[in-house]
Please model this.
Amino acid sequence: NHIDGTGVKNRTRICTNPRPSCFGKSCNGTTLENGNCNEKCCKTIHGGFTEWSQWSECECNHIDGTGVKNRTRICTNPRPSCFGKSCNGTTLENGNCNEKCCKTIHGGFTEWSQWSECECNHIDGTG
Model:
């Protein structure tokens, strides 16, 4: 019985050792004996999930400024045994962490401004 982890066993005997004959009496007593064998039986235990792990570090995609994190859980709370069902559900959960990521933006120059007024060097005549 896998519900409570109990078991039964039985044994039989027949009156043939020797068989009664020539006005001999038949055997006196039961022909069936029952016993338990709980030590050989197991209780069905269905699996259960552990708590979710801590979130992983954020993995950033700097091309678009998004981020992904994940966490896991496993089916060992308790571990299924003795014909028990395994856990039903996901063992990996993903989440976003966009607030921790930035989009890479490379610097760029503006257009050139207008030329300034010419400042002349009157000593050597350049400018």
Summary: The chain has a mean pLDDT of 91. The two ends are 105 Å apart (CA to CA).
